[in-house]
Every structure is written in C-alpha cells, then in structure tokens.
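Dear colleagues,

For the upcoming journal club I promised to circulate an example of a predicted protein-ligand complex. I picked one with fe (ii) ion because it came up in last month's discussion. The inputs are reproduced below in full, followed by the predicted structure.
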Amino acid sequence: MAQTSTRIDIPDVESVLAVANTDVDEVVHAVHDNVDAIFTWDYDKGARPKLDKLYEKAKRSQWNATTDLAWDTPVDQEAVVVANAAQSGGLHEGMDLAGTPFASWTEREWIRLGIESQNWTLSQFMHGEQAALICTAKIVESVPWIDAKYYAATQVMDEARHMEVFARYLDEKLSGHYPVNAHLRALLDDIITDSRWDMTYLGMQIMVEGLALAAFGMIRQLTTEPLLKELLRYVMSDEARHVAFGVLSLQEHYQQLSASEIRERQEFAYEAAIRMRNRLLQQEVWERMEVPVEEAVALVAESPDRVLFQQMLFSRIVPNCKKLGLLDAGDGWLRDRFTELGVIQFEDQADTGEEYESLAAVGADRPA
Ligand SMILES: [Fe+2]
Ligand SMILES: [Fe+2]
C-alpha cells in the first residue's frame, strides 16, 4: 500500500505540463450543456423537509458583498506575504534547494513568488466561483424536485456574490489576474457537459466545493490580512450550506441507482480527485516568473508542505463521499483509491451536514 501511495503522491510532471491554457486572451468559453430542462408541476414545497429547511436558512443568510465587507481596509500585498511567511515558518523552509533554479534566489524572489502565488490562487477561486454559478443554474434547470429548485436558486445568488468578492479583491487589493488553469477548466467543463443531472452535484457540490471549503479554511487560518479573513468567513458560511445541499440531494437519489450506476459515480469522483490532487501545481506562476517550469513543478510536487496541503484539501470530500455510500459501495472500490491517494484518514471527520450550522453565523468575525 505504501508503495502505491508514493507512486501517486508524486505527479507525472510531463502529463501535468502537457495540458496548458493556450487561449490566455480568450474572453468567452463555450461548453455544451447536455441536460434537459425539467419543469415540475408538483409545487409541494416542503415535501423534502431537509432541503426546505436549508432553503429557509439560505434566505435568512444572504449578505451584501458591497456593504458587509470593509473594502476600505488597506492591503500591502508584499507586507502580507512577509507576515504570512513569518507565521507559517518561511516560504521555503526545510527544502533542499541545492542544484535547483531556486538555489540563487534572494528574499526578493521569494516574496515575488508569494505574491504571484496569491494572485494565482485567488484567480482560480474566482474562476471556480463562476463555474459554481453556472453549475447551480444548471441544477435549477435540470433537478426534478421543487425543493431543490428553490434551494439551488439561492445558491445561484450566493455564487454570484462569491465571484463578485474574489474579482473585487483581486482588482483592488492584489496585483494581477491569472487565466483559468487548464486542468481546472477541463474538470469544470466535464462537470458541465455531463448529461446526468446528479453528476453536476457530485462534481461541483461534493468535489469542487468540498475542496474549496477546505482550501478557504486553511487560507483563512493562515492569512494575517483581516479583509481576506473576513471575506473567506462569509464565503465559507455559504459554501458549507452548498456542500450540505449536495449531500442531502444525492443521498436520496443514490438510493434508487443500480450497482453499475453507483460505480460510475465512484469513478467520476475518483477522476475529479486525481485532477485536483495532482494537477493543480501553479504551472502558470513559473511561466510568469520565467523559471524553468518543469524543474519548478517537479520540485513543488515533492515538497512536504504541498503534499500535506493537497491531502488536507480532502478533509471535507472523503467524509461526504462516505456519507453518500460511495466509499464502500462495490467492494469498497473508492475506499481503495482514496487509500492510494493518502486521504482515507479523513473519512470520519465531521461531515459538512453537521458542520454548516456552526459556520453559518455570518459576521462572527466582524468587530462589534
Ligand atoms: Fe462559492
Ligand atoms: Fe458554493
């Protein structure tokens, strides 16, 4: 088992770099959406009480990105990078850089890397939020249950707000956008293209939003910048509800699927996991910094910090897959895959359905 785990822990750098975004000046990107638009004439609101409760909660938890965040907070990005690095033990602590392109780097280059990494990460969050907006609009269109249509409509508004806050933070507080990473775009395209309505939920609400929730939580803990901390708290309070929406909806739907249909869901989840676990390596940052991309990606892929960070990203996904029955269905196929990926240890972490209640207290971080 340990051997398999090592093999998968170190991504195949060539295959990561083989996929690159060459349309960096593209302004619109069309993806064919294969679902039928489903009307339901069954307007029995509350027929699914848990979804109805979530919908009522979502209506009470709306916030205004323009007025609820302290946009006048000054942000000195360089100072933030230095302060964050001091807090987390340095930008390149504990790595042997002899013989690598980084051996001659001074503090200036490390700070620039911190700045570009932040620009890249928040750009990918912004693009992911737009994908969530589109996926949730697709759920409004394709889900057959009235309670899910009601709830998903609130999530469409939430995602618009998230896209708005990340775009504004990038424009006003950071120093440059990055186009969508090609691996992320391929994953998002696959989720949107799939003709089975429940795959939108699995791809977006369970996998992408589960990963986002973990990433937001880690960055929120790490950052010393108060506006970003507050912004992430607000976004997380919504995201936790979104993941709960996915779990509640799929739990019901999966009960009526055949073993082979469940296996397709397991494979879909695994494929998404592989892409998120091993492919999102900031390759565009190295290009912009004019560092040899192959060497840099290989080095980062093996850095202990990154391996730990990438594993932590699964802290929400694995327990939710367990709750959906996906881990152990079909002789535990997905359990075996998650074990190989080194993320199975998260299976009993508090799942998001229990957790969203505690996160939903919007404004808890704000000064009185
Ligand atoms: Fe979002
Ligand atoms: Fe979301």
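Two points we might discuss: Residues 107-142 form the longest helix (36 residues). The chain is about 65% helix and 0% strand.

See you all on Thursday,
B. R.
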